[in-house]
Amino acid sequence: MTDIVLSDKDKALERLSERERIAYNDWQENKNKPPLAPSLSAKLYNLFLNGYDCHEIVRLNEGLYSLGMVLEARVRDGWDQRRHDYLESLFSSVEDKAKQTQAESVMFLTDLMAATHKHYGDKLKKYIQSGDINDLGDMRLDSPGAYKKVVEMFLKLTGQDGGGQAPAPPGMHVVSQNTIIQQTPAKEMGPDPNDAKAMLRFLNASDEEKK
Fold this sequence. Notes:
By secondary structure, the chain is mainly alpha-helical. It has 3 domains: 8-77, no CATH class; 82-136; 144-210, no CATH class. 60% of the residues lie in helices and 4% in strands. The chain contains 9 helices and 2 strands. The protein has helices spanning 8-14, 18-29, 38-49, 54-60, 67-76, 79-130, 144-157, 196-204, 207-210, and strands at 172-176, 179-182. The chain has a two-stranded antiparallel ribbon. Helix 2 crosses helix 5 (67-76), helix 4 crosses helix 5 and helix 7 packs antiparallel against helix 8.
């Protein structure tokens, strides 16, 4: 069995509704006016491209053209296929541009983070070496609040901010997902400084709870 290959005109006719097909056939049988000129068809196509159907195009032109005349121009000049090709190209371009913008944004942020790491990383290293507060420049970590923010950032970057359970460090025991108790002697104050999650709980706790 051979496949039936439809012409462009047949494909365009298939896109018409039943009412439109009747109006188109009536105009073909009773051509009391010449078809629309290509230049006029192009102008009306702009309305079609922007979502107006042929009935609305006829109404907007206050009866200057019959529905059959507009439908004939639509079929003859392939309005449906042209709109389909235009939208397909438009969406493809938008998608490609969005991907490009996203990739460029990632590259920019990566470079910005790398520059920030170098700028502040060198200051931190100098301070660790010298102990001179002036080596930190505009970077300050001299308050519990600032330290707390650093811990919170660390938890987010390492996935320990509630998204999963981090393994308990030495000397600690996991009771539940959000509870870690210390197994070291009671005289030792505060959590293990190497456990950021426990440290954040310690910073949020009241003075009574820290005792």
